[in-house]
Design brief:
The complex is a heterotrimer of chains A (546), B (215) and C (317). With 215 residues, chain B is mainly α. Chain B has helices spanning 3-7, 15-50, 52-59, 64-89, 93-123, 139-175, 185-209. In chain C, the strands form 3 sheets. A 5-stranded mixed beta sheet of chain C has the order 3-2-1-5-8, covered by helices on one side. In chain C, strands 4-10-9-6-7 form a 5-stranded mixed beta sheet. The chains are: A mainly alpha (546), B mainly alpha (215), C alpha+beta (317).
């Protein structure tokens, strides 16, 4: 296959040209690209804020920026990264592209709703960027009252509107996925033949639809309190600021599972492909995803052990928090067992997947420290917590995202990326990541609080180490940006299945035609049947079209 | 191409699949709405538990008759909506359009009464904010009650307005002859939405208006 | 290992070794599992590396008993950690009865402390060593958090409510105090020190710069000045309930509800008197919100406490 042949065959990228064909598309694959470009933009904006934070923290004094500016930086870093990068990243980019293909469908259930989802995301992002341009917001991404509802002098309402609007993007994506997975599977694609990527996105979608509306209404109440001077969370008027925390964390804890479950889905696919074996304990891993989603709704109070919450409530939340750790641990063991007697190769996606397992294990274990009531009293609101969640969200989710992007890049673009550079970038990211965040565990136990613009000189050496690591990490993130764009023009042309993987998405050309499959796929085996040829697993029946 | 086929979207395998997908989609959406209103209900219950007396006293200031009339109006509108769906199912275009219009009218009556209520609250200095006035001892929690009153009924009203918009769009499509026994999914789904908005009010009315009565 | 900078906080309270013990256990468990997983991954990835392009490994579905095994082990371990952590936590929330009580008021961006003997401090807290101390804390504005890393303790400080933090310092010295709940522009400047003194030095410090009046005495003068005594008489009939012996008792309110007369109850009665009406009395007490500062409320509470049990001086050790 050569360049000329790719251009001659019609596929979803060349079926029509022009900005209008992109901005008014209903093709889930094109919408995935719209999301890819937008979340990448937000990632680098959030990364810019992080850069400034780490530069300021190189010295104990506040010499780079003023206190107010610093407070806005960490707030905007959190808001941008969480709501505009991490939450949409894998579901809206890889999920949108792959969910229909993996189940043998021609598109999601509601293609126009999918496009609306992206526009809503952009609208929410626009509000938030406007707030940043107008001077920013300094409440922390957690918007605790009464500071956010009464005391802060920054653009709280504008930011809150941005997050509120973007929430609907999540809700609609989750709705689309649930209906699609229920109703549009190809013949023979039973629930227990689905790829684990699909199970992970199904579980994530449940959280999308049940959790997001709660933060929506919480932010509405904060906005109303600020605009109209209501007393809902204001203690001076009989309101309760701790009630805000309950409502906020009721969504925001499950939100972290929104951020990690899809990455776990990606990792399952990668481990299976690059060991050439089905995932060990497939059923258990599938149910573990659901268990994490369900139990994840019951643990929100572990963010509030010292908030004034009752001791009994705290004890209950601690117990449940330990329970939610178990399905995650089981997944790690199952992935590791998948390597046993497999045929392991070290392509870049696999390096990201293995990196995920290692970093997620550390992040998850430190979650046990936090769930332990006696320890949490000491490390709550310190750098220990920051280190913990960055291990999971950056060491975990971002690695999962990058691994997935690399793995499916040939499918999405018809090109291969340069493998050597990709492996180098993965290694740089892994090393840079540890250097950035491991010192923060030590800083946290030492007592360095979060959100501190200045700090005692004793903490400087570890902070400098962390900033040094961040600069390495930054290099690691810029590299893929460069070589992936390069590969669009100069990368080797990819065939339908360059990795020799199993899955319906690999049974169609790269890039795929607009309707994904020329003929209706029919499935006779479970996922990851690497011991068989694809012809033995999938057959194609009547022409798919209308 | 048959009337039905004209509305089948190409990514579905058949009308049956499209219909099932649309239904499931609407139910999932309603689940999100339950969580949305649920958050407000939960917060309301917490404060009601703490400030039972003040909430009862504040609730007494609401006009129970207007609230009751509005409840009856909404229930009637759900009835006309159901009749509209039935008309669509039996391919009767004119009754469909008439019942949709009746539903809209009843919805507008509801909103009219609601906004009249808001107006009286404004005149009685019961709108939360700097102009709020209430018996001094209970003023703070009463203001919280009214914050919830306006937030919850306001959110509900927003959903009604959206519903009326949807109904209007349905009328436009009905006049173009889009709906018949073979295809009327948008009418069914809008009916689901409308009934849901009605049910939210069925919860709001006793919680907000009848609270003081049994104390 | 002296690196020139510390890697571990000092242990300066009775709680610190308990917390650190659990920490070391968790670190040991984590090192074990991280080593295990890293080792297994590297071992398998190397041993089973792909040797030929057309390799087809034999499929392995799973093993039920293995799943049970590696579910039960984490379950057992996490339950041990949970119980251990909960025990420490309950201890953290159980102040001893003979604790020296100190009032703390936090506000953007400073800490104010009030000793029972009357001393006031700003951004500093002097306490005796080997003596339980209980802090009664509230905020004048947003949520703050009183954090003492050397003691391994912190507690959010809320507006409109009291929260408590107790500790027993084990080593004389100076230890950092940080605000650990983001509270606005100067959040990272809201720091201070806890100065732990040997009993003799503490006595010396107490008699050093005091105002002369203890918190309870200041509270009594406020009680008179604001006219509380007019309705809350100790003897005879009065419009308001007598406050002698009130603190810590169960109070019966109207409609049969009962509450314990603790610090939060008294504070609420001052700023929002109609929230809870004692059975048999009329709701005629005016509100003092905005008329008394948080420090003044703490002083009044100290006075009301002194009307209860016989004068209890902190046990000398």
């Amino acid at each position: 296959m050569n360049d000329f042949e790719i251009e001659r065959r019609e596929h979803y990228l060349n079926v029509n040209y022009g900005i209008r064909s992109w901005l008014f598309t209903t093709d889930h694959k094109r919408i995935a690209w719209l999301y890819l470009l937008s979340v990448t933009l937000f990632f680098f904006i959030g990364g810019l804020f992080a850069t400034l934070i780490r530069l300021e923290l190189m010295t104990p004094q506040g010499d780079l920026v003023q206190a107010e500016t610093y407070n806005k930086l960490f707030t905007m870093h959190g808001v941008t990264m969480i709501f505009f990068f991490l939450i949409p990243s894998i579901p809206a980019v890889l999920g949108n592209f792959l969910v229909p293909m993996m189940i043998g469908a021609r598109d999601l259930a509601f293609p126009r709703l999918n496009l609306a989802s992206w526009y809503i995301f952009i609208l929410g992002g626009a509000f938030t960027l406007m707030a940043a341009a107008a001077g920013g917001v300094d409440t922390g991404w957690t918007f605790y009252t009464p500071y956010s509802s009464i005391y802060s002098n920054t653009h709280v309402v504008l930011t809150v509107v941005g997050v509120f609007v973007t929430g609907f993007s999540s809700i609609l994506t989750g709705l689309n996925f649930i209906v699609t997975i229920h109703k549009m599977r190809a013949p023979g694609m039973t629930w227990f033949r689905l790829p684990l990527f699909i199970w992970a996105h199904y579980a994530t979608s449940i959280i999308f639809i049940l959790g997001t509306p709660v933060i929506a209404i919480t932010l509405v109440l904060v906005g109303l309190e600020r605009i109209f001077g209501l007393g809902i969370f204001d203690p001076a008027l009989g309101g309760d600021p701790v009630l805000f925390q309950h409502l906020f964390w009721f969504y925001s804890h499950p939100a972290v599972y929104i951020m990690v479950l899809p990455a776990m889905g990606v990792v399952s696919e990668l481990i299976a492909c690059f060991s050439r074996k089905r995932v060990f304990g497939y059923n258990v891993v599938a149910f573990a995803s659901l268990a994490i989603a369900v139990i994840g709704f019951l643990v929100w109070g572990h963010h509030m052990f010292v908030s004034g919450q009752s001791v009994h409530a705290s004890i209950l939340f601690s117990l449940l928090s330990f329970l939610v750790a178990i399905p995650s641990a089981v997944k790690v063991f199952n992935w590791t067992a998948t390597l046993y007697k497999g045929s392991v190769s070290y392509d870049a996606p696999m390096l990201y997947a293995l990196g995920f397992i290692g970093l997620f294990t550390i992040g998850g274990l430190t979650g046990l420290f936090l769930a332990a009531l006696g320890i949490d009293v000491h490390v709550h609101d310190t750098y220990f917590v920051i280190a913990h969640f960055h291990y999971i969200m950056v060491g975990g989710s971002v690695m999962g995202y990058l691994g997935g992007i690399h793995f499916w890049w040939p499918k999405m673009t018809g090109r291969r990326y340069p493998e050597g550079w990709a492996r180098l970038a993965a290694l740089i990211i892994f090393i840079g990541f540890h250097l950035t965040f491991f010192p923060q565990f030590v800083l946290g136990y030492m007592g360095m609080p979060r959100r501190y613009h200045v700090y005692p000189p004793d903490f400087q050496v570890l902070n400098v180490m962390s900033t040094a690591g961040a600069s390495i990490l930054a290099v690691g993130y810029v590299l893929p940006l460069v070589y992936l764009i390069w590969s669009l023009r100069y990368g080797t042309v990819a065939g339908a299945n360059p990795w020799g993987a199993r899955g319906l998405e690999w049974e169609t050309p790269s890039p795929p035609p607009t309707d994904n499959f020329e003929r209706v796929p029919m499935v006779t085996e479970g996922a990851y049947a690497y011991e068989k040829d694809p012809e033995e697993i999938y057959s194609f029946g009547k022409p798919a079209h209308v | 191409m048959s009337k039905v086929e004209a509305f089948r979207q190409h990514h579905f395998d058949g009308v049956e699949q499209q219909h099932e997908a649309s239904w499931l989609g609407m139910w999932v959406f309603l689940a999100t709405e339950v969580m949305f209103f649920g958050g407000m209900f939960a917060a309301y219950f917490v404060y009601r538990h703490w400030y039972l007396l003040a909430f009862g006293s504040a609730s007494n200031r609401l006009d129970i008759w207007l609230g009751a009339i509005n409840t009856a109006v909404l229930i009637c509108s759900s009835f006309t909506m159901a009749l509209a769906v039935h008309s669509a199912e039996t391919s009767r275009r004119k009754p469909l359009i008439r019942f949709l219009m009746l539903t809209i009218i009843l919805g507008l009556v509801f909103l009219g009464i609601k906004f009249y209520e808001y107006h009286t609250k404004f005149e009685e200095y019961l709108v939360p904010g700097s102009s709020f006035r209430f018996e001094a001892a209970l003023a703070a929690p009463a203001e919280i009650f009214f914050s919830f009153y306006f937030a919850m009924t306001g959110m509900h009203a927003v959903h009604m307005i959206i519903g009326i918009g949807l109904l209007t769009a349905l009328i436009v499509r009905a006049r173009r002859g889009h709906f018949s026994a073979l295809y009327h999914t948008p009418v069914e789904l809008t009916g689901l939405y409308w009934h849901f908005v009605d049910i939210v009010w069925i919860f709001l009315f006793p919680l907000l208006y009848l609270l003081g009565r049994h104390l | 290992m002296n690196l020139g900078f510390p890697l571990f906080p000092e242990q300066a309270s009775t709680m610190a070794p308990k917390v650190d013990a659990l920490l070391f256990f968790l670190v040991a468990v984590s090192v074990f599992f991280v080593t295990l997983i890293f080792f297994m991954i590297i071992f398998f990835a190397v041993k089973y590396r792909r040797r030929a392009e057309d390799e087809r490994p034999r499929p392995i579905e799973g093993a039920f008993w293995l799943e049970v095994f590696w579910s039960l082990i984490p379950f057992g371990l996490t339950m041990v950690i949970f119980v251990w952590g909960a025990i420490i936590f309950v201890d953290i929330f159980s102040p001893p009865n003979d604790a020296l009580e100190i009032g703390i008021v936090g506000r953007q961006w400073m800490w104010k402390a009030q000793h029972p003997e009357g001393q006031r401090e700003i951004n500093e807290l002097h306490v005796p060593v080997r003596q339980p101390v209980k802090l009664m804390m509230t905020s004048e504005d947003v949520i703050h958090d009183f954090f003492l890393p050397a003691f391994r303790l912190k507690q959010d400080v809320l507006p409109g409510r009291y929260t408590r933090l107790w500790f027993e310092a084990t080593k004389a010295g100076v230890y950092p105090l940080y605000c650990a709940e983001y509270c606005g522009t100067q959040h990272s400047g809201m720091t201070g020190r806890v100065v732990v003194l040997e009993p003799a030095d503490f006595e010396k410090w107490l008699s050093g710069g005091a105002t002369g009046m203890s918190m309870a005495e200041l509270g009594e003068s406020l009680f008179q000045r604001f006219g509380c005594a007019a309705c809350h008489r100790a003897t005879g009939t009065s419009q308001g309930p007598s406050l002698a012996g009130l603190f810590g008792k169960t109070v019966e309110l109207q409609q049969g509800i009962t509450v314990t007369a603790d610090e939060n109850y008294i504070r609420e009665s001052i700023v929002d008197p109609r929230a809870k009406i004692v059975a048999g009395y009329q709701p005629i007490m005016p509100t003092f919100k905005g008329l008394v500062s948080e420090e003044a409320i703490l002083q009044i509470i100290a006075y009301i406490k002194s009307l209860s049990a016989p004068e209890r001086k902190p046990a000398q050790r």
